[in-house]
Design a protein that fits this description.
about 60% helix, globular, 2 strands, mainly alpha, about 210 residues, about 0% strand, two-stranded parallel ribbon
Length: about 210
């Protein structure tokens, strides 16, 4: 439903997910929305209305040259309220927030809610050691099943575009050819991302609804 040529926004995800959910309901079945990116899940189940601003690739290219720290500092200056709530280590989210501000000339609007569903929230709890072990096994399996070949094929077709340069599991191949170093980098990046996901869910206003 999306190619590596473009970033898949939260608004696009919500639209596609709602269409899929509708089809599942019509078959008399119950949809299961599974994933780790909390904001995207929240956008669907709580009906968050996300501003649909088209990507500005020239602006994104300029922002890509900045460090994560510089992006966050700029966001704090332009939109302090959004800066309080955003994942300050997520480059893609920071760039998107700055893009909305610079394109509209206004802070990122408050996300409107349109509740639509009754939800059963289930969260998988793992100890740090269990999580690390699970991630390590997953990465080893991905590499064994041909991740390197997949990356090379995508880069040959699309180049090191903004999507591939930011995606965990892909970006680590850009500056190294040593498989061991690459595997360790993917494991480290995946673990850090998983930790941030868990932090998001524990801070999530609806956290009390989650059955861990």
């Amino acid at each position: 439903i999306a190619t590596p040529k473009k970033q898949f926004t939260g608004a696009e995800f919500r639209k596609c997910a709602l269409e899929a959910i509708d089809k599942i309901y019509k078959k008399g079945k119950i949809p299961v929305l599974c994933g780790g990116t909390g904001f995207y899940i929240q956008a669907v189940v709580e009906g968050l209305k996300i501003p649909a601003i088209k990507p500005d690739w020239k602006l994104r290219k300029e922002l890509e040259q900045k460090t994560i720290e510089e992006l966050f500092k700029e966001l704090k200056k332009l939109d302090p309220e959004r800066a309080k709530k955003i994942d300050s280590k997520n480059r893609r989210r920071l760039i998107r927030a700055l893009e909305i501000i610079k394109k509209t000339g206004k802070p990122v609007p408050g996300l409107k809610k349109e509740p639509q569903f009754e939800i059963l929230y289930l969260g998988i709890k793992k100890s740090p050691n269990e999580l690390r072990k699970s991630i390590n096994q997953r990465v080893d399996k991905m590499i064994k099943k041909g991740l390197e070949k997949e990356v090379k094929k995508l880069v040959k077709k699309y180049g090191w575009n903004i999507v591939l340069k930011n995606a965990i599991g892909y970006k680590e191949w850009k500056d190294s050819e040593d498989k061991k170093i690459i595997a360790n980098a993917i494991k480290k990046d995946s673990y850090q991302y998983a930790k941030r996901q868990m932090t998001w869910f524990h801070k999530y206003p609806g956290n009390k609804k989650i059955h861990w």
